[in-house]
Amino acid sequence: MSRLDNALNFEDLRKLARKKLPAPLFNYIDGGADNESNVRGNTLAFDTAKLVPEYLIDVSDISLTTRVLGRELAMPLLLSPTGMTRLFHPAGETAVSRAASAAGVHYALSTVGSTSIEDVAAASDGPRCFQIYVMKDRSLTHEFIQRCKDARYDALILTVDLPVASNRERELRYGFTMPPKLNLAGIAGFAVKPGWIFNYLSHPPALLANVVHKIPQGSSQRSSLMEYVAKQFDTAVTWDDLEWMISEWGGPFAVKGILSPSDARKAVDVGASAVMVSNHGGRQLDGALSSFEALGPIVDEVGGECEIICDGGIRRGTHVLKALARGATACSTGRPYLYGLAAGGEAGVAKMLKLLRTELKIDMGLLGCRSINEVSGKHISGTIHRNHA
Length: 389
Hints:
By secondary structure, the protein is an alpha/beta fold.
């Protein structure tokens, strides 16, 4: 029996990931900004909310299917975009996208992913979207949109909560910054994980695959790519840029990083078909609202006008149900699948998705709901917010 077989929850996968990864990489996944209060608070907000079950309902046939960002999903879940995934396992984004496809959930590829738009598309025919940033070089943004059209992506996601880089002290402690400047602690963290080093050296280097062509030939090292991307993030992005991108794309389009009802309203007014309520997994503005705390007021503002995806802090099936009861269309998560990937590659991601699906189906039965559409405000204490869009 493998160690994955013994994993009963996300925390078990986290422990396995910690054993396998060098300290700088594990802490890159695990950490957040400043005091990391939002990293903890995202999950705590779910844990403190209370569900209200109803009984004597026939729950012998339970369906988790729903439609999000233009695709039918087997359960209301997206795998959030995460950067440089091949650092955590050589199979990287390809493994994650295949596991997501097999589980029937959306996978979002990051702009700073280590696998190309085209290679992820070739890996599976499952639901997929691309997370995009507005770059100073607008031709690169236009190129990303066209490449996603050509590769038949279902949706685009614009992340808006990265106007400037945050203070991430775990990354500074090890020198795991952009570009990397490893210090003695960082070097030591890698030195004690020879298995990771062997896997890394025996596979092609993990580069920023979608921008590698922008670096002059002969200088496409990781540091050059990281430095290029770090300089490309545009701090002058406005709602006009979003409106242009939505028009240029012409399909399902989500805006990620929304915490205020007024921003949700602006996103819908310029044509977004979905908003992702997110604080970047606690990696940007520490002390901001948790995603779950921000969800209800945003549902009150734009519920029924767009899809609403609650991103961050999901660790249990009951967390998903609480978000749905507050009015979310679906949820998205990042760290749990990275723990699974680090613990066991594609099988580890599949294990994480199986755990969540199993919990969610049990919890639906215990709540007294036979389909996702039946989960509503009456199933959560202290809410007056409308049902999902």
